[in-house]
Amino acid sequence: MSKVLLHDKYFQPYIAAAEIQQRIQEIAAEIDKDYAGLDPLFIGILNGSFVFAADLFRAVTIKAEISFIKLASYRGTSSTGNIITAIGLEDNLHDRHIIILEDIVDTGRTLFSFLPVIEQQSPASVRIAAFLSKPDARQHEVPLAYTGFEIPDKFVVGYGLDYDKLGRNLPELYILAD
Ligand code: IMP
Asked: Where in the sequence is the domain holding 104, given as residue range(s)?
């Protein structure tokens, strides 16, 4: 594998496709064990999670459902802070076991704002499965039940993640070259 150029930046190979697939199988096996008989509902956050969601969902063997949402955030008043709306969120999450699928948790701001929106519907449980986590970049604490890989605070692309819309189709993960 060699470097790729996306817009003005070079990215170098970081995590191989086979290693990613191996880790997906491990997480799916954990979910199979943790959620047997609970009929969980996966909620994938678009756009970035679509590749992770497709692979993880196909690796899970228990009875399960999946749906996708898109998040839009806008600035509210100074008392309400940042307001987040979930486009396409189903309104029947009551008593369901929810597994949120996210491509990467960076500062944690996105999920920190989104979790209360889910909790409002009083689901039976909510857990997060993140393909990637950057612990060193965290500003808001969010509990990650399943994490594919912990990575340094550097920009990555591929496997659904983009740099200004490009790179999502790369089957392996690439990191910004030095
Ligand atoms: P957070 O709200 O700071 O946790 O950011 C989460 C979102 O930022 C992710 O869903 C990605 O869309 C984006 N993001 C953060 N780091 C990266 C990266 O290294 N590559 C591509 N997208 C990223």
From this structure: 4-176
